[in-house]
Amino acid sequence: MATDTRELTAVRATTLTRGFGARIVLDSLDLEIAEGEFVALLGRSGSGKSTLLRALAELDDGVAGSGELAVPVERSVVFQDARLLPWARVLDNVVLGLDGPQARERGREALAEVGLGGRERAWPNELSGGEQQRVALARSLVRRPALLLADEPFGALDALTRIRMQELLLELHARHRPAVLLVTHDVDEAVALADRVIVLDTGRIVVDRPIPRGASDAAAHRKHLLAALGVG
Amino acid sequence: MTEVSIPAPRTREAPAAQRDVRLAPRPPTGRRLRPGPTSARALALGPLLLLVGWTGGSAVGLIDPATLSPPWTVVTTFGELAADGRLQSNLLTSLQRSVAGLVLGVGAGVGLALLAGLTRTGEAIIDGPVQVKRAVPTLALIPLAIIWFGIGEQMKIIVIATSVLIPVYVNTHAALRGVDARYVELAETVGLSRLRFVRQVALPGALPGFFVGLRLAVTVSWTALVVVEQVNATSGIGYLMTQARTYGQTEIIIAGLVVYAVFGLVGDTAVRAIERSALSWRRTLGS
Ligand SMILES: Nc1ncnc2c1ncn2[C@@H]1O[C@H](COP(=O)(O)OP(=O)(O)O)[C@@H](O)[C@H]1O
Ligand SMILES: [Mg+2]
């Protein structure tokens, strides 16, 4: 069906290098993410995952480095903490920084999509951790991002809530098709959600492994990735 | 084509959301670390005890009326002062001075705190002089203020305003500096403009600190008022008290003190009420 084999890229990083003081954290790293592609990023603690994500989010002003980077303008970030402004109601958090009369209507729709319709006027403090993270997802979605960057967004949630959030993220990705870079320390989460899993080690990508949808060899992927992470 | 119809599941119970349940508030159980809710009545307990002690002490002769007039004398003095209109006119003058000074001082304090808290040049230019002003007592400024601004209303309001400015500036500035860097980062990722950042992140984030400053400011406006009215004035509650001192009328001095106390408490209560509704999003020890 597809005649054009070249996929459009959402992210292209070439010889990306970042460091703190004398310590090189990203070492001449190359990375491409196609439009709509769901990429999970694994790596040991301190391997530079957040540094890479912050570079793609252009949140690393003042960090020394070099390399070329092309990222879409429409990108949004989900942090490990939901990072809602405690003094703003849920809907105001979702539409933070948006303009126009439709913004609030779209904000309401996004809240309904993450299952929080009717909670527009709640304070963030009144929500559970999972609900707060869903508001953060709605805040990202409402911006119609071409690239969604998420840094261990479910790391602080309990196991059950995490499973629900993973399903929600898959559903939202299927519907809106942004390119996604999901940082996680959970190999199973990476295999379950992503089209492609990359492993970062000492500033370089040491594994870049496509995970075909519907493939049932999750166990094999898991074993391979765990080995790359130095476990098992 | 055959159509298969699936019978809708029957529900025996009404869904939980539709059941009409009235929940009664439960009494607190167990040991808590938080101090428990404070009521207006509880806050009135301390002042009430003072009043009882004063009345009792005067009634049994423990307190010499020449040192401290009994409460009933103070009450009749209030009556006399109100009857000849001296209370109202002097009170109005005092209130006008303190409110004008408060409004000007709070505005200037917030403005300077914003400049110093959000810009490097502002910090460099503003913070030093404010700290210097902070080290100088209000009373010490009055001779210079009189030379510069005369002995009229202008001087009084300026002295009050510059005194009020300090706590507002110090607390708002500290709160602005303390706004969580993670929120600043969030503002960057959602592309907030500088103006919106100030309005939606910096100001609300600094609001708790601002209210601490405002509460102090209300008290300071009142104390600065006392200073300017007792040093050089021909009207106001402070003037009334200075006059009374000349004639040894302790009951008028006490009446003046009562006015200061009442208005100080009223001012503080008002600010706290505003604070509670403005900061209703907070879930803290005190709420
Ligand atoms: N702001 C910073 N200043 C100094 N060192 C940093 C800073 N941020 C990260 N690092 C260092 O960079 C390395 C990678 O950090 P990070 O990208 O956060 O790792 P990860 O997210 O994979 O756990 C770590 O050794 C960390 O100490
Ligand atoms: Mg990290």
Summarize the model shown:
With 232 residues, chain A is α/β, with parallel strands linked by helices. Chain A is built from seven helices and nine strands; from the N terminus they run E-E-E-H-E-E-H-H-H-E-H-E-H-E-E-H. Chain B is flat, with a radius of gyration of 27 Å.
Structural overview:
The complex is a heterodimer of chains A (232) and B (287). With 232 residues, chain A is an alpha/beta fold. Chain A folds into two domains: 1-74 and 145-232, P-loop containing nucleotide triphosphate hydrolases (Rossmann fold, 3-Layer(aba) Sandwich), CATH 3.40.50; 85-144, no CATH class. Chain A has helices spanning 49-56, 90-94, 102-113, 129-141, 159-176, 187-193, 218-228, and strands spanning 9-20, 23-34, 38-43, 64-70, 75-78, 147-151, 179-183, 196-201, 204-210. Chain A has a six-stranded mixed sheet, sandwiched between helices. Chain A has a three-stranded antiparallel sheet with strand order 2-1-4, with helices on one face. In chain A, α3 packs across α4 (129-141), α4 runs parallel beside α5 (159-176) and α6 packs across α7 (218-228). The longest helix of chain A has 18 residues, at 159-176. Chain A is globular and about 45 Å long. The N and C termini of chain A lie far apart (41 Å). With 287 residues, chain B is mainly α. Chain B has one domain (69-277): MetI-like fold, CATH 1.10.3720. Chain B has eleven helices and no strands. The longest helix of chain B is centred in the C-terminal third of the chain and has 38 residues, at 194-231. Chain B is flat. Chain B starts with 39 loop residues before the first helix and ends in a 9-residue tail after the last helix. The A-B interface holds A 57, 59, 76-77, 79, 81, 83, 85-88, 96-97, 123-125, 139, 143 and B 182-183, 185-192, 196, 200-201, 204-205, 207, 279-283. Bound molecules: adenosine-5'-diphosphate and magnesium ion. Magnesium ion (MG) binds next to α1 of chain A.
